[in-house]
Amino acid sequence: MAYFSQQLVNAITLGAIYGLIAIGYTMVYGIIGMINFAHGEVFMIGAFMSLIGFLICGMLGISSVPAVIVLVLLMSMAFTAVYGWAIERVAYRPLRGSFRLAPLISAIGVSIVLQNFVQLAQGARSKPGGSVVSGGFILFSADDFDVRITWLQIIIVVVTVVLMASFTLLIARTSLGRRQRACEQDMKMASLLGVDVDRTISLTFVLGAALAAVAGMLFLMYYGIIDFFIGFLAGIKAFTAAVLGGIGSLPGAMLGGLLIGLIEVFWAAYFSSEYKDVAVFVILVLVLIFRPSGLLGKPEIEKV
Amino acid sequence: MEPRLAPMLKDAAITAFVAAALGIFIVGFRTVDIGTGLGFEYHFVDLAIAVATVFCGRLGLSLAANGRRWPSMALGAVLILVGIAPMRMPSDFLHWFVALAGVLLIGRGISPWATDAVTSVQASPSGERAREVGTKWFGWMLLAAAVLLPFMPFVDQKTMDLSVLILTYVMLGWGLNIVVGLAGLLDLGYVAFYAVGAYSYALLSTQFGLGFWAVLPIAGMIAALFGVLLGFPVLRLRGDYLAIVTLGFGEIIRLVLLNWVDLTNGPAGIGSIPGPTLFGAVFSETPPAGQRSFSEMTGIAFDANHRLIYLYYIILLLALITNAFTQRMRRLPVGRAWEALREDEIACRALGINPTNTKLTAFAIGAMFAGFAGSFFAAKQRFISPESFVFIESAIILAIVVLGGMGSQIGIVLAAVLLIGLPEWFRELGSYRMLAFGLAMVLIMVFRPRGIVAHRRPSILLHPPNGRPPYLGGGR
Predict the structure, then answer these.
(1) Can you state the percent helix, strand and coil of chain B, rounding each to 5?
(2) Do A278 and B439 touch (CB under 8 A)?
């Protein structure tokens, strides 16, 4: 029981990170119907930004942990958002109206470029860092096994919940959210009614990239080590989460992230850690075959 | 209207500012190991040069777009001079970067004239004639060159190695072309079938002692079987979902190969795989007991190059079979159904084509050719491990197909030479090769979504553009 609870705590933490990345996939898919294959790489860039941010803070001698976290968070979000904007502007916007697979192929290209760019600029070795929060407390003990929750896990879950809540509000209440929903329903009609479609799509990418940056920072703090290749696997898992929850649905992305975190952690804990990624991929295949609209998504009707 | 300089300068400044924001942390602060942990190596000069180049490049492009081609080209010339100047820049890459930006600007300035010249030549009667002859004979000329290549005096072992590699990718490209180019299914896990073929041969030959030629069809069948097994449930999915599922499948295969140690020997791989034989003769100076070598059989003195030349002809033959098969299939009803499905699935369904079965044939046939190529790969390398079958291989094969113009057979050959041959030849490009790959994929999609060989014609036309009846205007 205690072992189970410990795994549950770990799974929720991991699921929160996947959920944050999954939101980026789901928002972009909702608005322009493309899989932003490069999103995993944006997450990786966010993690590197945070790594560099932590090091700079260390050099400047800022020692207050909350101040460091907030500063690095803001810096990483701001500069990763520029990547989101630039990717959309350079690689996707010119392709609107091209054939359906063109943006996906272009996205694969962007993903390869970003991976190798970071490898060239930062080196191929894995980088340790970001371990600024340590310690935790024992939740309860049973069967000679302590269930521990670290402060970091609490921070991760709290940050995720706050961001999710503000995001849901943003989509539901603000004018940007209204414009996004309008573009999602009918892009042409929205532009006829005076919505600046290009700007709305750009902002969607910017927001998605900022969330991916947060996920990157949390990932760095949680694992304490990153390299230029982390975006590939994390990206696919987050995409699986988005599909599982119903792509295009925001609560779905969060639910999917949690489920993927649970599957991965429990598979590794009770079966074999070698096949945990296989388990995630199998889930992806099964969901797409039997319930392509996901758990919370609405079925998509193809129009002629 | 006189184009004004101020808005252009502003635009270029904004672009440069974005470039600076992108690069300031990732490029400017390079994290390096310093005994106690991580430290920084600062690269702000690199960043400043790159940002200045971006500023000039953007300015030049907007000048050219506003009809000021001469100033733009002059700017390009200056950039090239700066790029090749013998002054010291922090890295070689920056020389390349600056010079390439200059080349881009000059190319942009020349391109309208070049396009004009090309269209006028093409439109003239002799040009049209030359083009017809060219498209008819170019493939045959290429084939003749490929057949004669091993006997050319200038060909050394390095060239032969590279040619075998290129031909392997040509074959893979042609195989994937059936799936992506003809049937329009984006397959991101093609390398999985390649792996299945390679492991089939490796296991059957090392465990059961079967020879290359006996296993080749079996490996193709096994790969095709995997194609059907994967394809049957997933081919109902829409295009981009299919892409992700195939990617997941490719990763599953790789992870299984990596972790099923009893069968595949895991990350250590399978070694000492026998090479292909010619009528039972092996290519080795000291043949294993009970077998004879090629030099004993023919009486030609032993030469280590014989094995390579033999491998070259095998892969050439396999690639040509792939090509011939594809060309024939395109004329059959199922091949036409592939192309029709690519254009409009709903219309096909209305006309009574079963989309799932049609896609399944394309998928299985594509997988089969990957299986052939995989067994060849195992026989050539004599050692395989899961490391050879990572996602990036799928992406490279896909890049070849995309660059070649999705559906054009000659285009794929050119793209394979360009993408595989050039980087191998220019070793110093080495680590920038994948960067260039990715960039090429984006640029091709943005500027020439139909690929470098862009004049692919449909196999059959209802209303031919120049009024010839359809049976004369048929495709190649």
Answers:
(1) 75, 5, 25
(2) no
Q: Is residue A239 part of a domain?
A: no
The complex scores an ipTM of 0.85
Calculated CA dihedral for residues B196, B199, B200, B204, nearest 10 degrees? -170
- Examine the pLDDT at B344 and tell me if it is beyond 90: no
Q: How far is A190 from chain B (nearest CA, A)?
A: 25
Q: Strand A225-226 vs strand A127-128: parallel, antiparallel, or unpaired?
A: antiparallel
The topology (CATH level 3) of B156-427 is ABC transporter involved in vitamin B12 uptake, BtuC (1.10.3470)
Please report, for chain A, how many H helices and E strands are present, in that order: 11, 4
If one compares B61 and B474, the residue with the highest pLDDT of the two is: B61
The confidence band for A105, taking pLDDT boundaries of 50, 70 and 90, is: confident
Give me the domain span that covers residue A191: 28-234
Chain A residues within an 8 Å CB radius of B22: 79, 82-83, 86
In a domain, A251, yes or no: no
The residue ranges of every structural domain in chain B are 5-122, 156-427
d(C-alpha B288, C-alpha B282), whole Å: 9
Q: Would the pLDDT of A245 be above 50? A: yes
Chain B contact set for A239 (CB, 8 A): 244
Cβ within 8 Å of B, A 56-85:
56, 59, 79, 82-83, 85
Q: Among all residues of chain B, which has the CA nearest to that of A93?
A: B446
- Count chain A–chain B contacts defined by CB atoms under 8 A: 179
pLDDT above 60 (res A275): yes
Q: Is residue A12 situated within a structural domain?
A: no
Give the number of domains in chain A.
Answer: 1
CB contact under 8 A, A106 and B446: yes
User: How far apart are the C-alpha atoms of B278 and B282, rounded to whole Å?
Assistant: 7
Average pLDDT over residues A182-208: 90
pLDDT class for B453, splitting at 50, 70, 90? low
d(C-alpha A54, C-alpha B94), whole Å: 28
Contact B30 A122 (CB under 8 A): yes
pLDDT digits (tens, 9 = 90+) for B413-427: 888 888 887 776 665
Q: Among candidates A111, A242, A174, A79, which has minimal Cα distance to B435?
A: A111
The answer to whether position A9 is within a domain reads no
Nearest-by-Cβ selection for A110 from B25, B398, B442: B442
- Cβ of B237 within 8 Å of Cβ of A289? The answer is yes
Closest residue of A to B241, CA-based? A288
Per-residue pLDDT reduced to its tens digit, B7-62: 888 888 999 999 988 888 888 888 888 777 788 888 888 888 889 888 888 888 88
Best residue of B14, B54, B252, B428 to probe chain A, by most A CBs closer than 10 Å = B252
